[in-house]
Specification:
Elements: E1 11-15, E2 25-33, E3 38-45, E4 54-56, E5 59-74, E6 81-87, E7 92-95, E8 100-117, E9 122-127, E10 133-138, H1 140-147
Antiparallel strand pairs: 1-2, 2-3, 3-8, 4-8, 4-9, 5-6, 5-7, 5-8, 9-10
């Protein structure tokens, strides 16, 4: 599969609302999902736009394919920004569950491939600015949609 030239990819668009005080504008596309807890996804961030503040609850690896991804690590207890890392094309990262952060596309956006592995089905939690869990993402509904 050519991820750069593939009209069959089904992109899901996510945007913010007045509940969020930062611009949310990103897309995701499923590459593969398996019942053993593995899932591969592509994410595209519009320039200078964020995804939702979140915590990974699965083991996660990622590879920046286009643009640059800005990762803002946040203290889950205080909400304080701890660091900002700018990940250029070719940057690979591997993280254990529990990583609390925000991600933003650089000036030209960002295309990133994510591979996640979950033993219990949990993938991520979307968080409010105070760390309260707003929603939980799991692999089960993705498996069900993919099976049909």
């Amino acid at each position: 599969m050519n991820v750069f030239q593939n009209d069959d990819l089904r992109w899901k668009h996510f945007t913010g609302s007045d509940r969020f005080d930062y611009p949310i504008d990103f897309y995701s596309a499923l590459l593969s999902v398996r019942p053993d807890g593995h899932i591969d996804l592509l994410y595209w961030w519009e320039p200078n736009s964020y995804c939702h503040f979140h915590r990974h609850t699965a083991n996660t690896t990622s590879l920046v394919l286009k643009g640059e991804l800005h990762v803002i690590d946040v203290d889950p207890e205080t909400g304080e920004e701890l660091s900002v890392k700018i990940r250029p094309v070719g940057d690979f990262a591997s993280k254990a569950p529990g990583d609390v952060h925000m991600e933003r596309g650089g000036p030209e956006g960002a295309l990133v491939m994510f591979s996640l592995y979950t033993e219990d089905g949990s993938l991520a939690e979307t968080l409010a600015s105070n760390g309260r869990v707003l929603s939980t993402s799991t692999i089960d509904p993705i498996l069900q949609r993919h099976a049909s």
